[in-house]
Design brief:
Length: 663
């Protein structure tokens, strides 16, 4: 018999909650639950993005608590203040503790009048209880400023640990918090920090569900600053196969011809250590693998010739990558490799002096903004994490402002800084200019929270797309003089009239193409280019599979084994016979339905640099037929965009009716 999907609905305004149980055949995971609730129960598309009906749905997949590796992602579904559409974000390892609460999902709705912490506890029999604790806004800011030596998200995490210490039993117990960024901006992340038995942060175990502004939704729509969970519930009790690694081995041998452990080790090799490259993890591998195709200097590297890009790449490797490599992989000391909080052979979390080093936060607060000394970028990453920002979005914001100052559309004093950043790649010197750019970036990041500067406050409250349009009006003379609008210097995919999503840091059309959910890897993101129909088919099929993996609560670093094994796992471990690919495509179509109702469907590129990102990668791979047309004729770019969008829907429709490979 199939398992059930247990969900706690919490009205944080009325301080009431109820437990609902659904058959697993109805909701295979938290994404299916989230999209259904937003479409049918809360109808959040009818309201403002910070309305209390914008429920924050958080949950794990049905394999959490089992003997499988990488199945303890905590998934969040909410309407994003960025895209204005339904969005999905995820954090690693946290469900390893969350599942001990005895539930598989929590739905937060309503709004608390005061900052609120919600506690969710499960006993050994599976019974659930909730606690609520209010704090004042003044107390919240005192905690953020300094709580027993901890600041920002660390301070709030430690405060929750001290108040709810009884939740942290048997090595479990964890919290999700927001930081100052969620209180003061639309760019706030959801943050979870693993703690040791003394309540101190465990190296590598800071995980953020950052994309889309979920932290801002939790605080500004619901008044919640923290959710803590724990308990003694064992989800595998009475479900023998969930705990039986030997049974999983037999499944693996049937599908792959090898034992499960060997398959997992091979699938996660890049994230642990890739012998062919001599490095590991996203930071270590990407600079070696993508070389001069890694975007830097506000994505202006897309305009550089090959020789200049290679020169910049050598700087990146010497000043940015090598210090990490020496300490993390070549040091004779014990290797600082960690997991996200669940047992996993991938040990993908690499730390440098106890700071987690991943590609995107470090590239966004490093190469993208002309900060090429690793130590300088580390300081900025620590600051952004402590404030609880989405590091990818903040990297884009700082890079955009740097480029605007570099081009003359803005003056330093207009964004509250003293100096113009150094953004000339021809004469850039990491030793001289990286510290300068770091300090300017630090002031901008703090300004986004402090709200004293008019332009930074506008970006915090409205985001890049709306801010750019208002700056076009404010500085109309400069726009006319330079022949360049403020949005032309930014890179983003547009949704509806005001929504947008900044791309992850890949020089790829897939990051800005007209898909209905962006900001995640629900696309093809290789640095390549092809005709729109071919690219759309690749992106659509990736989106469907990535959605399936997220819905199962499985880490995408495990996707190479999970995608093939997933139908067998649902059937053999849970008793659910399902066409996973078709089911995932049906769910994607529900996202399309929601975005249409919310007025957040993909809109044609309105930024010159976004179009040029697509055109330049086309030129880079030899597709001059498209690149030359796109660079001189907006109609050509629109043709590619429209053909892509049309084909995307056709492919999703085909998959949803079963027209796909069974593999």
């Amino acid at each position: 018999m199939a398992m059930e999907y247990k969900v706690v609905f919490v009205d944080v305004g009325k301080r009431v909650w109820r437990l609902e149980r659904f058959p697993l055949t109805r909701y295979l995971g938290p994404i299916e639950l989230g999209v259904d609730l937003h479409l049918n129960r809360f109808k959040s598309f009818m309201y403002d993005v910070f309305h209390e009906n914008n429920a924050l749905v958080m949950g794990c997949g049905p394999f959490a608590g089992s003997s499988l590796f990488g199945v303890h992602r905590l998934i969040f579904v909410f309407r994003s203040p960025h895209s204005r559409g339904l969005h999905v974000s995820a954090m690693g390892g946290v469900a390893h503790s969350f599942i001990r609460s005895g539930v598989m999902a929590v739905v937060i709705y309503g709004k608390s009048g005061k900052p609120l912490i919600v506690g969710i506890w499960g006993d050994s029999n599976g019974s659930v209880k909730l606690e609520f604790r209010e704090i004042s806004e003044d107390e919240l800011w005192r905690i953020f400023d300094d709580y027993n030596g901890f600041k920002g998200v660390y301070g709030l995490t430690r405060y929750i640990y001290d108040v709810f210490r009884h939740y942290y039993v048997e090595g479990y117990g964890r919290s999700i918090v927001v930081g100052p960024a969620a209180v003061k901006s639309m760019h706030g992340a959801l943050v979870s920090i693993g703690l040791d038995k003394s309540g101190n942060p465990i190296p590598g175990q800071i995980d953020l569900a950052a994309r889309g502004g979920g932290g801002s939704v939790l605080y500004r729509a619901h008044g919640v600053v923290g959710i803590v969970f724990g308990g003694k519930y064992n989800p595998a009790r009475g479900k023998v196969r969930l705990a039986d690694i030997r049974f999983v081995d037999r499944l693996s041998k049937h599908v792959f011809g090898r034992e499960y452990g060997a398959v997992v080790a091979e699938a996660t090799r890049k994230y642990r250590f890739e012998p062919k490259l001599g490095t590991g993890g996203t930071f270590g591998v990407n600079y070696v693998l993508y070389r001069d195709l890694v975007p830097g200097f506000a994505f202006n590297t897309i305009y550089y010739g090959k020789a200049l890009r290679l020169k910049m790449h050598r700087m990146v490797m010497e000043y940015f990558w090598r210090p990490f490599q020496e300490k993390v992989f070549k040091s004779k000391e014990s290797k600082p490799w960690h997991t996200c909080g669940e047992p996993c052979p991938g040990v993908c979390k690499k730390t440098w002096n106890n700071v987690k080093v991943d590609y995107e936060p470090f590239n966004g607060l490093g190469f993208l903004i002309g900060v090429l000394r690793f130590e300088d970028a580390k300081e900025l990453v620590e600051l952004v994490d402590m404030l609880g920002f989405d590091a990818i979005e903040i990297g884009h914001i700082v890079a955009w402002l740097f480029d605007l100052m570099h081009r003359g559309l803005l003056q330093p004093e207009e964004v509250g800084v003293d100096n113009r950043p150094y953004f000339d790649p021809l004469t850039y010197d990491p030793e001289k200019h990286s510290p300068v750019n770091k300090e300017i970036a630090r002031k901008i990041i703090m300004g986004l929270v402090e709200g004293d500067n008019e332009i930074l406050r506008l970006i915090s409250e409205k985001g890049v797309r709306v801010a750019a349009k208002e700056l076009d009006k404010k500085y109309a003379f400069r726009v006319k003089m330079y022949g360049l609008r403020f949005e032309d210097v930014a890179i983003y995919a547009a949704f509806g009239d005001q929504g947008y999503m900044s791309p992850n840091y890949y020089w790829s059309p897939g990051m800005v193409a007209p898909l209905y959910v962006l900001g995640r890897y629900w696309t093809s993101y290789s640095p390549t280019f092809s005709d729109p129909e071919e690219f759309a088919e690749s992106a659509a099929r990736r989106a469907v599979m990535e959605l399936a993996i997220d819905n199962a609560g499985i880490c995408r670093f495990h996707r190479h084994w999970a995608e093939k094994l997933l139908p067998h796992l649902y059937r053999e471990l849970l008793g659910v016979e399902v066409d996973v690919v078709r089911r995932s495509a049906e769910t994607y179509k529900r996202f399309v339905e929601y975005q249409e109702k919310a007025g957040a469907v993909p809109a044609f590129w309105e930024s010159r640099k976004t179009i040029e990102l697509v055109a330049t990668i086309a030129a880079e791979v030899g597709r001059v037929d498209w690149s030359e047309k796109m660079l001189v004729n907006l109609k050509a770019a629109r043709e590619w965009w429209e053909r892509f969008k049309k084909k995307l829907i056709e492919v999703i429709d085909a998959i949803s009716v079963g027209a796909h490979s069974s593999s």
